Predict the structure.
Amino acid sequence: MNGDRTTRQALEALVMVADGPVPPHLLAELLEISAEAVEALAAELQAGYEAEERGFVLTRVAGGYRFQTHPDVDAYVERFVLEGQSARLSAAALETLAIVCYKQPVSRAQVAAIRGVNVDGVIRTLHQRGYIDAVARDPGPGQASLYGTTALFLEKLGIDSLDDLPSVAEFIPGPEVVEALEHGLRVTEG
Amino acid sequence: MNGDRTTRQALEALVMVADGPVPPHLLAELLEISAEAVEALAAELQAGYEAEERGFVLTRVAGGYRFQTHPDVDAYVERFVLEGQSARLSAAALETLAIVCYKQPVSRAQVAAIRGVNVDGVIRTLHQRGYIDAVARDPGPGQASLYGTTALFLEKLGIDSLDDLPSVAEFIPGPEVVEALEHGLRVTEG
Amino acid sequence: MPYEVSTSVFEGPFDLLLQLITADQVDLYEISICRIVDGYLAELERMETLDLDMATEFLLIAATLVELKSRRLLPGLDDGDLDEELALWEERDLLLSRLLECKTFKDAAAALHRLSEQASRSYPRLAGPDERFLSLAPDLLAGITPEALRDAFIRAATPKPIPRVQMDHVAPIRASVADAVEELLDELPRVGVITFRRLTQGLVERLAVIVRFLAVLELYKQGAIDLEQTERLGELRVTWLGLPTELSGMPIEEYQG
C-alpha cells in the first residue's frame, strides 16, 4: 500500500537525518502511527538491511533508533575517523569554542552574530567531539538549542570548573564604548 | 564476491559516519580502489536505494557523496528538523549571489555596478551565511576583496560543482526582450 | 493611470526601468519621468540610510531618459549637432547593455532559486561517527591553555569596525517633483525671468537640485516656461510664459496619483 510505503520511507528519513537516537514515541507522533507500528516497521527495515548486506544497521539504543555502521567494516570507519579529520583546532574554531565557553548558554545564531560568519560546521564538530553540548532551549520562537561546555572540556583544559577560567571582564569594551564606536563609524539616520 | 561486498559495505559505512560530503578520492584511498570504481559502486548503490524505495538517497554534492533524505518525505522531516534550516534568500540576495557565482572572482564594486545599487549589506549577509567568501585581492590600487562562492553554496543548491550550473549564456535575454528594450529606449519617434 | 510603479519590489534603478519597459510594455514616450523620479524619491525616503551610490546611479539613468525623451518630444532637434547625436546613441547603448545585463542576472537568480528550492526538500545526514569511534579522533584541545582560550574570546568579542563614510549630517530628503512643481508655480509668476542657478541657490542637497531641474523640464514640456541656454553648460535662463489655459486650475493633477 502507498501509505505504508510513505510511512516506511519517512521513518528511514527521520532516523537518517537525526544526529542522535530518535525515541520511538517521537517517531510514532511524527508518523501518526502507534508505537507498536513503529517497532514493527523498524524490525522490518532491520531485516531488510541485513538481507541486503548493507554497510549500516538500524539499532535500538537507550534513547531510541539510530543508524550505525556495520561492525564488519569497523576497520574502515576507524581509519576514516583517524585520518579524515584534522588534528588541530583552527583559529576560527578556537574563537567559536571560546565564545561558547564564556557566553554559555548561547545559541548558534548568537555565536554566529559575534563571529560574523557561519559557525554551523564548527559547532557540529565541537559537539561531536563532546566539548560542547546542548544544555537548554531558547524559550523564544524557534526554540534554538543553547550550547554550553561539557565536563570533558574542563578535563581537557585541565581545570576543575568554569570559575577557574581567567576573567575577561576587564578586556571587553563595555556597551557604551561599543555604542560610541558604532555611532562614529556607521551611517545613522539623520 | 566477498571482497566486493565488503567494499560496498565500507563505502556505505564511511558515507554514513561522515558529517559532510566525502570526496571520491578519499573514499578511493580508504577502500583501496580507484576513484572510477568508487563512482561505479556509488551509482550501483543509488540505483539500489531507488529500486528499494528507500527514504534516503545517496547524492553527489559539493564534490563528494553524502546521505540525504528523500525529497518525497520532506513534509515529515521538516517537522522534525527545527534547526539548521537556513532562511530563504531575498530577491536582492539571490541576484547578488548570481552575479558573484557567474563572475567570480568579483569585487563588491563590480557587483554594485551591475545591480545599480549599493550591495554592502547583502554581501555581508551572504558572507555571514557562508555562501560567499573573499577568495582573492584585487591587484590594483585599494586591493579590494574579490568574492567567490563556497562549498556551502554548492550544498545549498544541491549541486556537485559550478560546472553543474546552467551556462550564463542561457539567461541572456532573447531577441524579443532586446527588441522591447530597444523600442522602449529608441531615440527617434516611429 | 496607465501604469503602476511597484515600489514594494524596488531593487534599484535598472529593476524599475526593466519592469516599466518589459513587464508593463510601456513606451518610454508614455512614461512620465517625474513619476519615476517621485517613485525613487519615495523609496529613498523610506531607506534607513541615504544611499548616495544609488541616488547617483538613478540620476544618470534619469538624465539619459530625459535626453531620449526630449529628442522624441522635439523631433526638430534631429538636425542638431552630430557629435551630440552620437553621444546620445552611445548613452542609450550603454543603458541598454546595462539593462540586458541586469535582466540576465535576474533570470540567473531565478534559476539559482529553483535549484535551492529543490535542494531544500532533501536534508543531509550530519550525525557523524557514533561514540564508539570518538576516542580515536585526535584530541583537538591538546596544548590549548585556559589563557589561550581567553585570548581567543577577546579576539572574537572585540567589535570589528565597519568603515563607512560619516554621513550623520545628511538630512533625509523630503522632496518630490510634484512639490517642486508647486514651488515653481508659486515662485516663477512673481519673478518672471530667473536663472536656474538663482532658482536653486538655497538648496544644499544635490538631489534637491536635480528634483528642481526635473520640475523645470516638466513645466517646459507643459509650455508654461521657456528655457534658454546660450552656450553648452552655460547659464540656464527660465522665463515664465504663463500656464496654458487647459492646465490652469489643475496644473499638477498628474502628480497626485
About this structure: Chain A has nine helices and five strands. Confidence is low (pLDDT under 50) at residues 184-190 of chain A. Residues 7 and 32 of chain A are 9 Å apart (CA to CA).
